[in-house]
Amino acid sequence: MLFDTHAHLNALQYENDVEEVIQRALDEGVSEIVVVGFDRETIERAMELIEEYDFIYAAIGWHPVDAIDMTDKDLQWIRELSEHPKVVAIGEMGLDYYWDKSPKDIQKEVFRKQIALAKEVKLPIIIHNRDATADVVAILEEEGASEVGGIMHCFTGSLEVAKQCMDMNFYISFGGPVTFKNAKKPKEVVQEIPLDRLLIETDCPYLTPHPFRGKRNEPGYVKYVAEEIAKLRNLSYEEIAKKTSDNGKKIFGIK
């Protein structure tokens, strides 16, 4: 009944116990997981996981922090892999101005190339945005990203920005930070997002929700995100779980 729309079960943090982590997710009611690959190694592992588990799907793309490392050969490889029926999105992609590994102009170029690829293969996109909101929104508009739509992953921005993105056919996804006691803005914004545009995620192994903050995150903890949103919106947990699951299946084209 729960859909973790953004997980990194392909991360090294799970190399010794991924089977147990996945079983715990099932035990908590998670019925679908999208594993996101963002470089050569993590994309390869994501492709392995979708062959091993029928309820796991993949998103494949290139992370902005590592944009400087992406070659045209890598982009072509992503294009080829995207033909797999269980590859449901391109990304995560976007801009990250917090880390300075990749120059901004290279990040923007790689971002634009991936949007073009997504339009070519007709898949939605998953957006990573850190300290780069104005440029992210501008590029989405300039590149016509509304043609494929997608997900604003782990959204922490303003309601105004959320509305701009929803106008471009994007869903707004919330993760562990919405459960943090000091997360005033996400708590306010999540109450205003239309239910048919709302998604939940873990971004595991990162951004672990309360009450496990500081420990390794995992897909089973997405229930704490759903519980917090249900409380904030004065709706039942079951209603949030079902609606966000339905939304996830819709954007990813999962029957």
SSE layout:
Blueprint lengths: L1 E6 L10 H10 L2 E8 L2 H13 L3 E5 L11 H10 L5 E10 L7 H18 L3 E6 L2 H10 L7 E3 L6 H9 L2 E5 L9 H7 L7 E3 L21 H12 L3 H16 L3
Parallel strand pairs: 1-2, 2-3, 3-4, 4-5, 5-6, 6-7, 7-8
Helix pairs in contact: 8-9
Structural class: alpha/beta
Compute the average pLDDT: 98
**What value does the Rg take, in angstroms?**
17 Å
Strand content: 15-25%
How many beta-strand runs? 8
Overall spatial form: globular
Order of helices and strands: EHEHEHEHEHEHEHEHH
What can you see in these coordinates?
The chain has 255 residues and is α/β, with parallel strands linked by helices. It is built from nine helices and eight strands. Strands 1-2-3-4-5-6-7-8 form an eight-stranded parallel sheet, with helices on both faces.
Give a quick rundown of the structure.
This protein is an alpha/beta fold and 255 residues long. The protein has helices spanning 18-27, 40-52, 72-81, 104-121, 133-142, 159-167, 184-190, 222-233, 237-252; strands spanning 2-7, 30-37, 56-60, 87-96, 125-130, 150-152, 170-174, 198-200. The chain has an eight-stranded parallel sheet, sandwiched between helices.
Q: What are the key terms here?
A:
255 residues; 41% helix; 8-stranded parallel beta sheet; alpha/beta; 8 strands
